[in-house]
Every structure is written in C-alpha cells, then in structure tokens.
C-alpha cells in the first residue's frame, strides 16, 4: 500500500510517499480503507523527535492519528463493526499511521462515522474532539454556569472545545487574533480576547477551568485567573509524575518529568488549584458520544483546507505555520 513515511527523526525531515506492507490484523482489530486523514500538531512533534523517549516509533514510520473510512474486514473477536461500515477514529499510540491507504484500528478505539458528515469532515474530528471531551467532561466535569477559558479559540482543539463547552452550558472565554474574533464568536465564545492587543490575565478572573494549549508563559498566567479550587488542564505540558506512571516510563524519565512539572505543581498547590496534564487517548465509546452530538447539530467540524494525498508534505508544512483555522485534512481516496 502507499503511505507517507518518515525515515528518521529531525526538524529537517520532510517525509515522502512510499510502498509499505499492509497492516497485520489482530483478533480485536478492524481493517479500515482510509478515505481521509487529518493533520495535527502532534504529527509535527513526532516527526521532529519531540516524543521519541515517550513514544518510540520504529523507522520507517507512517505518520497520522485521525482517520475516516470504510471497514474492509474485521478480526475474529470484533462484534460492533462489519465490512462496509463507515467509521472514524483516533489511532492508538504506537499504532498510528493514517497517512496511508489502510490501517488496523482496535475495535475499542473505533466509532461509526456521523451520518451527516463527509469523510473529510469526519476525519477532522477524532483527536481534537476527544481532547475536548477528556478535558471538559472526563477530567474537569464541567457544569452549567461555570466559567472556562479555552486558549487559541481558532485552533483545532479550541474550535471544538468552545462548541462542547457551550453545549455543556458554560461561559466561555478564549483568545484569537484580530481577524478571527467574529469567527470565534460565531462558534459560541462569550468573551473573545485579541491576544495581539490584550493579555488575558489582565481581563479574566475567578475562572473555574483553563484549557492550556500554549507555552510556559500562558501556563503560568493561567494560574492567576483561576479561583481557589479551580482546575488548570494542560495539553501542551509539562507532563506530571502521574502521566509518567500511566505511560510506564523508566525511572530516570519519571524523574525528569517530575522536575519539569515541579514549578507549576508547587505554585498550583499554593493557590489551591488542581493541575492536570492530559495526553489524550483513543476512545471509541467517547467518540460515539461525539457522533451523537454532531448528528444532533450541537457541534460541527471546522475544516480549514483539504490537501490531496500526494501533497501530504505540503499539508504538514501548512499546519507548521500555526495559522490554520480549525483542521487540515488529507483526502486519501
């Protein structure tokens, strides 16, 4: 099969399309004929080697985490899917590879595609929608009337998280650039801060939850806007000792992560704030809940551009500019 591969880690590694063996189907796997895949910042970070100590991929490696397509065949233990079903998923860690013609996905990570979406629209959702769900619903248990600050409202995660938070009944504040203010308000944000003109920490106070997706300065300043008892959830780091244990990392790496997060954990404790690092995971049951929200009209995908499979490297380069509105999708079929 054709696949977009990298042959080494590095910031100068671009990647290329090559012939690769078809996936091996395990008894609890579903083999998916890929129609579309989406590009995430995580793909860029894996390509550069940023996660090689936590997620060591064998080279050559096929990039890509999001997939939408149709079932080709299923393993002997699979019960919920059959050949011909339209499905979508976030592929499991260490089993990624959606920039390809086929992929084997665990049944537990797969969901039926929303009936009202195209393959390209569906492919844009899994990673960002599951991230939003795991932050807002699973970890923070966001309640009606609470105040949440979602950074980078025009980004892939931000655009979906705003919609989910509004569906849950929260008051939503976010940041974006001048050109995107009206667009982000249309997604449901109640308060939009132009980060080029104002610092969010000078505007916001007594918030219940922050979804941090930015750098260290934004992380520190987020602590200043939370009420005592509030929750800071970061998807951009630094990782915590709890994450290291969950990943089964070696003792030296656990100590490194403990040191990296010690500052924010100590400050959060002093302020009576809970700090959590989330490295989102594949989850078919949660994705099926998201399917219901999409089909009901409570949420909608945000697709910036669609690239042909032959231009996968260009799609990655576009995401690397940091100027996307929503998600970038690769049309495979």
UniProtKB/TrEMBL annotation:
Coiled coil spans: none
One Pfam assignment: ADH_N
SUPFAM superfamilies: GroES-like, NAD(P)-binding Rossmann-fold domains
Domain Enoyl reductase (ER), residue spans: 15-330
A GO term for molecular function: oxidoreductase activity
Listed name of the protein: Zinc-binding dehydrogenase
């Amino acid at each position: 099969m054709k696949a977009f591969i990298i042959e080494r880690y590095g910031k100068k590694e671009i990647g290329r399309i090559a012939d690769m063996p078809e996936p091996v189907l395990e008894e609890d796997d579903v083999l998916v004929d890929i129609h579309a895949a989406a590009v995430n910042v995580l793909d860029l970070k894996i390509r550069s080697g940023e996660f090689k100590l936590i997620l060591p991929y064998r080279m050559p490696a096929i990039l890509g985490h999001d997939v939408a397509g149709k079932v080709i065949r299923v393993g002997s233990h699979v019960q919920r899917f059959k050949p011909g079903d339209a499905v979508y998923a976030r592929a499991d860690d260490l089993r990624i590879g959606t920039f390809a013609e086929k992929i084997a996905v665990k049944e537990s990570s797969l969901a039926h595609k929303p009936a009202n979406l195209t393959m390209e629209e569906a492919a844009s959702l899994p990673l960002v929608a599951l991230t939003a769900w795991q932050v807002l619903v699973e970890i923070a248990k966001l309640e009606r009337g609470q105040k949440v600050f979602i950074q980078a409202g025009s980004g892939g995660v931000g655009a979906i998280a705003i919609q989910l938070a509004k569906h849950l009944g929260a008051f939503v504040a976010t940041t974006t650039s001048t050109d995107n203010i009206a667009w982000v308000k249309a997604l449901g944000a109640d308060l939009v801060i132009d980060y080029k003109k104002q610092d969010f920490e000078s505007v916001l106070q007594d918030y219940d939850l922050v979804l941090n997706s930015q750098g260290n300065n934004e992380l520190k300043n987020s602590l200043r806007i939370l009420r005592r008892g509030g929750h800071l959830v970061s998807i951009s780091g630094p990782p915590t000792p709890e994450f290291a244990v969950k990943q089964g990392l070696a003792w030296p790496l656990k100590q490194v992560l403990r040191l990296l997060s010690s500052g924010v954990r100590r400050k959060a404790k002093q302020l009576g704030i809970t700090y959590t690092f989330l490295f989102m995971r594949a989850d078919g049951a949660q994705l099926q809940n998201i399917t219901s929200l999409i089909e009901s009209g409570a949420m909608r995908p945000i697709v910036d551009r669609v690239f042909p499979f032959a231009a996968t490297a260009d799609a990655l380069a576009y995401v690397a500019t940091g100027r996307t509105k929503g998600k970038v999708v690769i049309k495979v079929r």
